[in-house]
Specification:
There is one protein chain. Helix content is 37%, strand content 24%. It is α/β, with parallel strands linked by helices. It has one domain: 2-Layer Sandwich (Ribosomal Protein S5, domain 2), CATH 3.30.230. A 5-stranded mixed β-sheet has the order 1-4-5-3-2, sandwiched between helices. A hairpin with a 3-residue loop joins strand 2 and strand 3. The model has no long low-confidence stretch (mean pLDDT 92).
Length: 103
């Protein structure tokens, strides 16, 4: 898995994406043939203060590491956290991410 870091990659996915929406997260996907999974995580200030935003990011990364077999290989995905994600517990986050990754 690779993290998306450049503005150009984010903009490319924002321009041409397929959207999936769950209770806590929004996925923007773009299929890239012969490319490893790449993930970008966006957690806005609407979620809460920095401590809460970082906690949400850590939980998303932990889920991805634990469930590497669920992920499609040739996709770039941006995960946008909704404001409800800041108050969600670990179990709710796992359920929502599992649902979105298996769609």
């Amino acid at each position: 898995m690779k993290l998306i870091t450049s503005k150009r990659e984010y903009q490319d996915i924002y321009d041409t994406h397929i959207k999936s929406e769950g209770n806590l997260f929004i996925f923007l996907r773009k299929k890239i043939p012969e490319s490893p999974l790449a993930v970008g995580i966006v957690v806005s200030k609407k979620i809460g203060k920095a401590v809460v935003r970082n906690k949400v990011k850590r939980r998303i990364k932990a889920f991805i590491r634990e469930n590497i077999d669920l992920h499609p290989t040739n996709e770039k995905i941006i995960i946008l956290a909704k404001p409800e994600a800041g108050n969600a517990d670990w179990q709710e986050i796992k359920e929502d991410l599992t649902d979105l990754f298996t769609r």
